[in-house]
Structures are given as structure tokens and as C-alpha cells.
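User: Some background: our group keeps a shared notebook of sequences we're curious about, and every so often someone picks one and asks for a predicted structure to add to the entry. Today it's my turn. The entry only has the sequence so far, pasted here. Could you supply the structure so I can complete it?
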Amino acid sequence: VQLVESGGGLVQPGGSLRLSCAASGFTFSRYDMNWYRQAPGKERELVAGIRSVGGTTTYADSVKGRFTISRDNAKNAAYLQMSSLKPEDTAVYYCNAQGGRFGEIGYWGKGTLVTVSS
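Assistant: Of course. Here's the predicted structure to add to the notebook entry:
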């Protein structure tokens, strides 16, 4: 099983980035996909999620209206489009897949660093 994030980097405040998560080794379409982030000295927090069935999306209040999560089951990939980025969005962003009958199976990527700074 692998989840590989890409697309992080340095961006100025107000800018945009698109993160990608490439999945392999499991039945991607059956898993809910989430993006988490962890800023220095802070706990990991859920940023956005998209369900395997129906594609329902959820967002943390801090990113609503600025971030959009999506998935492409044909490509076994999930994405996080981030716009109007703020310095407080600086963090390592992690891709998470959650599945199983009771959501008990979870996979994690190694993360990609997003730095928002002028």
C-alpha cells in the first residue's frame, strides 16, 4: 500500500497550490480520502475529506471557501486545490485513506510541505 503526496512548495500569501495524492495497493474507490495537516508545534488536524460513496465533501472551518478536495477513481488519485493561501496554512500536508467495514483501516502518506511566505 502506498500513498504519495506531491505538489507542495513555497508560495506567496494569496497564491494557490494543488496537492496530489497517488494511491496504490488497495481498492481506492472503496476508501474515503482525507487531507490532514500539521503545523510546527501543533497537532495534526483534518483539513478536508471526500467520501467514497456519493463524493460528499467536508472541510475545516479555517479552509472553507478556499480549499477544494476532489478525487479521480479512474486514476486512483485525490487532490486538494488550495487558493487564497495564508501564512497560517503553512504545514506538512498528509493524505489519508480510510476504509473497512467500520472505517478501521487507515493508510497514510509521508506528507508534503506547504510554506506560505513572502
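Suggested note for the entry: The radius of gyration is 14 Å. The mean pLDDT is 96.
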